[in-house]
Write a structure and sequence with these properties.
The complex is a heterodimer of chains A (348) and B (802). Chain A is α+β, with helices and mostly antiparallel strands and 348 residues long. Helices cover 41% and strands 18% of the residues of chain A. Chain B has 802 residues and is an alpha+beta fold. Chain B has six domains: 64 residues, Phenylalanyl-tRNA Synthetase, Chain B, domain 1 (2-Layer Sandwich); 114 residues, Beta Barrel (OB fold (Dihydrolipoamide Acetyltransferase, E2P)), CATH 2.40.50.140; 203 residues, 3-Layer(bba) Sandwich (Phenylalanyl-tRNA Synthetase, Chain B, domain 3), CATH 3.50.40; 69 residues, Phenylalanyl-tRNA Synthetase, Chain B, domain 1 (2-Layer Sandwich), CATH 3.30.56; 201 residues, Bira Bifunctional Protein, Domain 2 (BirA Bifunctional Protein, domain 2), CATH 3.30.930; 88 residues, Ferrodoxin-fold anticodon-binding domain (Alpha-Beta Plaits), CATH 3.30.70.380. In chain B, α7 packs antiparallel against α8. Classes of the chains: A alpha+beta (348), B alpha+beta (802).
């Protein structure tokens, strides 16, 4: 057999062996066996000395091609085997992805705090400071500074938890207004603040009353603050909280510390104003009270009501949350049944 | 107050539906609701009983022949005790509808045909307390002849439509029909028309023997009296009765009813007394004594005191001024001469008296909110006119003045520019003047300035802001276009304290704890149980219940209560926290400090048994891990230490640690004492509490970035045998003290006591990591440090290195 034929035969059988190999190890062995220094090709080339000199380059090229072809066949086969191995591994590793995962529970923020923080974020965006207040407050700030003089019906002993004659559990976050106006340096610009917190009233706890609840007060004092500014601000708030299509309306009302005073209704977010159970078929839901700060209140903080004006509003986070999520018992906020709490995971 | 459309039409030409009016008035002035009476009533007519005889088979039923305006009389069986011949009565015909879906059917009663039912007012839905006493236990009898067959529903006012005004305290001017007519008129741009009372001057007879004394001058603004002679006390005419019961007032007799009627008309409470029963025809308005008593009726007598303003006659107390008239000198069927009193009392005094004696009513409601002192005399005259009209008086006195304060109109000056600026609108002077005119205010204009004269009926108006509100509401809030404040920019945001709290809360949420909110007012027990701050207790003066009597001194009791609440509802695996204030009071102060705290509790299992995991019972170290992560997040310089303590009551003496930051106490972590746990109805529960302010005060770490280490670390394991009493914390501290500058970390990987370990000892295994950030550590350096560590432990704690 000529060397030429020998090489061709080696090529045929090598490629054949590679194609038949089933395991990576066999293929590696094959490579070493066929292409290694002691392999048959190297052996065969020892016969080169018998080949006429002019044919030698051709044989050399052939030998290289044979090596290359075998190499290629082995590589191809390795790839095939690898793919088969991966496919098999994938098959074996297949899981039931519908089985539940191991949970790493994250806690749920209380729905009242979620509601409050949502409103806070809205006002922070408008440049409002979030002011803390005192839960135990002086009669002076809770009432007198809000134009609620002694003997005013709104400060009856029966509505307020007094601690001494002059100290009480604050009944409204409005108590913070006087403190913040006193502390503010108006030469540095307007006062824009909200003050959320806990307030207390002497009520028996039932589905609609709680002796402890939350309020969020808002106050803006500047030159040229108008009722229109109040309306625009509350309109934006209600759209933020209750949806972009909401309208608001003002109805005249009375609070000792604002004049004019208004109740604010928002168009029903459930029926869009058509009338439904939630809005008691009026299309509107009362959500908060507001007004222009009474001149007496400004004067008591040394602010000239001819030069400055102010608006204030107060809202109830409980009421907001109850409306928004259809909660029908205010006590649910304070009994903290975790099943109640956890349903609000991530709502705000 | 409910404004009857039928009545209102006497003053105003309104023909809108009550729904429309209520809606419009709500938007421009006063929250209102429409009320429609009698929508559930039908087929009620006047019947005239023309004969009556007992039912043959009954001892209490009667057979009445009743003229119901048809060609033939009908027979109706009636069981009312007060039925009698020749009465004009209410007949519910066959097929009539009565309240609550009741239907009247023709039928037989014990064998006798009955063509309907003769009704009492209560059967038509009038509250029993509003039915005249004589007709409460039977049928209603019309006070005068009416046409048989006539619609009884209309005659009784039971088809009336009303607008119910839910007034705010400043709008008591609408607690009378006239004030309400002004308000509704302004809404519709209609001026109400009123007729003032006209008395027959020929009947006026000067009286000089009635003695009026006002001894409490500061509490009485006005006190006017007239006496009338020759009254004939009887039932009031139907038109008056029906208006009263529709107002929620029980008709009594024509004299009392006339006074009540005028109260509704003018908003001005008026009182009537039997003149002949007064001691020496005298009335004195003065303070009661602590011995005074007010007899209300045969059953109820009120003990008065020196804070009560009363109307006395001689030694007898007639009534509590502005609140109630007692039994003495009441107008009865025998009365012939009456003293009529129209007065204005101090609102606060009336309110407090009404509260004190639990006697709030129509009169006190008006006085406490304020009445128009310009209507005192006109109201008085109106009562006289009504009584004269009804009973044809012989004579009446001139107005007798106990005290009189002239009613003055209020003058308010306002700037057109200021009004527009404050509202954000652009009304012209003429538009404003027109609105004010609708309200019955007169305006003079001088350049930008309006001078507005306001009648005394609107005593709520005092300053420019009040005027602005009137203009705006009548102009209509719906015409106000929203804007945002246009002043200088401001920096919004939280206080640093609040930012810090938000961060703490976010860590606990990430640790899987649900946030709770519990009450700040707690029971005495709850205020006492975890008073680790050793606060004086702060109590509210008038608690509603013992459960909410003291200000809390710790957040822990609220958390435990929450766990118990959940456990009772079959949720026992709980991980919760609360961030809130505790109230820490020093003895010398009334006012407690309000200190922000954060506290958490773990109870039951962590995780759950699932197809690939097992639940794990929460333990002390789970709670501690959360606390440590929280402290880690503070990013502060301080070193935190957990020191065992058995000093916190209600916590487990062997599973509790005080947490210190550089030796200053910031809180604690521990397990509830088994006894306390059992009493609180909770399972094994672990708690922590931290003072937020103490944590906030710690110096922040100044973080400077460092590259990750370039040189490998070297580790050594250390196993020791040590006395059981020695805390691992002590060992670790000692290891660090002796480990040299390259000791980076010490982790405990094994704690063991039991077989093969000497009794009273434990085996501890530590993994020590050494690292030099600037060079490769040599074995020699590490070995030296390791030896020093071991030597110290042997020396300090007598450990055996294994």
């Amino acid at each position: 057999m000529s060397l030429n034929d020998r090489l061709k035969e080696l090529r045929a059988s090598g490629i054949d062996d590679a194609k038949r190999a089933e395991h990576l190890k066999d293929l590696n062995d094959l490579r070493v066996k066929l292409l290694g220094k002691k392999g048959p090709i190297t052996q065969a080339l020892r016969g080169m000395k018998d080949v006429p000199k002019e044919e030698r380059p051709e044989i050399g090229t052939l030998a290289n091609n044979v090596k290359k072809d075998i190499q290629e066949a082995i590589e191809n086969r390795i790839q095939e085997v690898n793919q088969r191995i991966i496919a098999q591994k994938l098959q074996e590793e297949t899981l039931d992805v519908t089985l539940p995962a191991q949970s790493h529970k994250i806690g749920t923020k209380h729905i009242l705090n979620q509601t409050i923080e949502d409103i806070e974020q809205f006002f922070i965006g408008l440049g409002y400071e979030v002011a803390p207040g005192y839960e135990v407050e002086e009669d002076h700030y809770n009432f007198e500074r809000l134009n609620i003089p002694k003997d005013h019906p709104a400060r009856d002993m029966q509505d307020t938890f007094y601690i001494t004659n002059e100290l009480l559990m604050r009944t409204q976050t409005s108590a913070q207004e006087g403190r913040d106006m006193d502390a503010h340096d108006f030469s540095k610009g307007p006062l824009k603040m909200i003050s959320p917190g806990i307030v207390y009233r002497r009520d028996d706890d039932d589905a609609t009353h709680s002796h402890q609840f939350h309020q969020l007060e808002g106050l803006v004092v500047d030159k040229n603050i108008s009722m229109a500014d109040l309306k625009g601000t509350l309109e934006a708030l209600c759209r933020h909280v209750f949806g972009p299509d909401r309208e608001i309306r003002f109805r005249p009302s009375f609070f000792p510390f604002t004049e004019p005073s208004v109740e604010v209704d928002v168009s029903c977010f459930n029926c869009g104003g058509e009338g439904c159970r939630i809005c008691k078929y009026t299309g509107w839901i009362e959500v908060l009270g507001a007004g222009l700060t009474h001149p007496n209140v400004l004067k008591m903080s040394g602010i000239d009501p001819q030069q400055y004006s102010a608006f204030a509003f107060g809202l109830g986070p409980e009421r907001f949350a109850m409306l928004k999520y259809g909660i029908d018992d205010i006590r649910d906020f304070y009994t903290n049944d975790v099943r109640f709490l956890e349903q609000f995971k991530g709502v705000n | 107050m409910k404004i009857s459309m039928d009545w209102l039409k006497e003053y105003l030409p309104v023909d809108h539906s009550v729904e429309e009016i209520a809606n419009k008035v709500s938007l421009t002035g006063i929250e209102s609701a429409p009320v429609k009476l009698g929508t559930d009533l039908s087929k009620l007519v006047v019947g005239h009983i023309t004969s009556i005889k007992p039912h043959p088979d009954s001892d209490h039923l009667n057979l009445c022949q009743v003229d119901i305006g048809q060609s033939k009389e009908v027979q109706i069986v009636c069981g009312a005790p007060n039925v009698a011949n020749d009465q004009y009565v209410i007949v519910a015909l066959d097929g009539a509808d009565l309240p609550a879906g009741k239907k009247i059917k023709k039928g037989e009663i014990r064998g006798q045909v009955s063509n309907g039912m003769i009704c009492g007012l209560d059967e038509l839905g009038v509250k029993e307390s509003l039915v005249p006493t004589a007709y409460q236990k039977g049928i209603y009898v019309f006070p005068a002849a009416e046409t048989p067959g006539q619609d009884a529903k209309e005659l009784l006012g039971l088809n009336d439509e009303m607008v119910d005004l839910d007034i705010t305290p400043n709008r008591a001017d609408t607690l009378g029909m006239r004030g309400a007519a002004w308000e509704i008129g302004a809404t519709y741009d209609e001026k109400p028309q009123f007729t003032d009372p006209k008395l027959d001057e020929t009947k006026v007879k000067a009286v000089d023997d009635v003695k009026i004394q006002i001894k409490a001058d500061d509490l009485v603004t006005d006190y006017l009296v007239r006496t009338v002679s020759g009254v004939k006390v009887s039932e009031s005419p139907l038109w008056m009765q029906r208006r009263l019961w529709n107002q929620g007032i029980q008709p009594v007799n024509n004299i009392v009813d006339a006074a009540n009627y005028v109260m509704i008309e003018y908003g001005e409470p008026v009182e009537v007394y039997d003149l002949d029963k007064l001691d020496d025809k005298s009335v004195t308005v003065e303070m009661a004594t602590d011995a005074s008593k007010l007899v209300l009726d045969d059953k109820i007598t009120k003990d008065l005191n020196q804070n009560d303003l009363v109307i006395n006659s001689g030694n007898v107390t007639l009534g509590l001024a502005g609140v109630i008239h007692g039994q003495n000198a009441q107008v009865t069927s025998k009365t012939t001469n009456v003293l009529i009193e129209s007065a204005v009392y101090d609102g606060t005094s009336v309110r407090k008296a009404a509260q004190r004696h639990d006697l709030r009513g129509d009169a006190s409601n008006r006085f406490e909110k304020g009445v128009d002192n310009g209507a005192v005399e006109i109201s008085l005259n109106r009562v006289v006119e009504l009584i004269d009209e009804i009973t044809d008086l012989d004579s009446y006195s001139q107005v007798l003045v106990g005290k009189e304060t002239p009613a003055k109109p209020t003058i308010i000056k306002a700037s057109i520019e200021h009004i527009n600026r404050l509202m954000g609108i652009t009304l012209t002077d003429q538009e404003m003047i027109k609105i004010l005119d609708r309200l019955g205010f007169t305006t003079a204009e001088n350049g930008d300035q309006l001078t507005v004269t306001i009648p005394s009926r609107r005593w709520d108006m005092t300053i420019e802001a009040d005027l602005i509100e009137e203009i705006m509401r009548i102009y209509g809030y719906e015409n106000l276009k929203g804007t945002l404040p246009s002043g200088n920019e401001t920096n919004g945001g939280y206080t640093p304290q609040r930012e810090f709290i938000n961060k703490l809360k976010s860590v606990l949420l990430s640790e899987g704890m649900d946030e709770t909110i519990t009450f700040g007012l707690v029971s005495k027990k709850e205020a006492t149980d975890f008073n680790t701050v050793e606060s004086e207790y702060t109590r509210v003066l008038h608690p509603m219940t013992e459960d909410h009597e003291y200000l809390r001194t710790s957040l822990i009791p609220g958390l435990i209560k929450t766990i118990a609440y959940n456990k009772a509802r079959k949720t026992s695996d709980i991980s919760i926290f609360e961030q809130g204030r505790i109230f820490d009071r020093e003895e010398v102060n009334d006012r407690p400090k309000e200190v922000e705290y954060i506290a958490g509790a773990l109870s039951g299992d962590l995780g759950a048994d699932t197809w690939n995991t097992n639940a794990k019972k929460a333990d002390f170290y789970d709670m501690k891990a959360i606390v440590e992560e929280l402290l880690e997040f503070l990013n502060v310089e301080a070193t935190f230490e957990f020191t065992p303590t058995d000093k916190i009551e209600h916590l487990h003496p062997g599973q509790t640690a005080i947490i210190t930051a550089d030796e200053k106490t910031v809180g604690f972590v521990g397990k509830l004492h088994p006894e306390y746990q059992a009493k609180s109805s909770v399972d094994d529960t672990y708690v922590f509490e931290l003072n937020v302010y103490s944590l906030l005060a710690l110096t922040k770490k100044n973080v400077k970035a460092q590259s990750a280490p370039k040189y490998p670390s070297v580790s050594r394991d250390l196993a020791i045998l040590v006395d059981k009493q020695i805390a691992s914390g002590q060992i670790v501290k000692d290891i660090f003290n002796n480990g040299g500058e390259y000791l980076k970390d010490v982790n405990i990987f094994d704690v063991y006591q039991g077989s093969n370990i000497e009794i009273g000892h434990k085996s501890l295994g530590y993994h020590l990591i050494f690292q030099n950030p600037n060079d490769t550590l040599t074995d020699d350096t590490v070995e030296k440090a390791f030896t020093q560590i071991k030597d110290s432990l042997i020396d300090q704690f007598d450990v055996e290195v294994r």
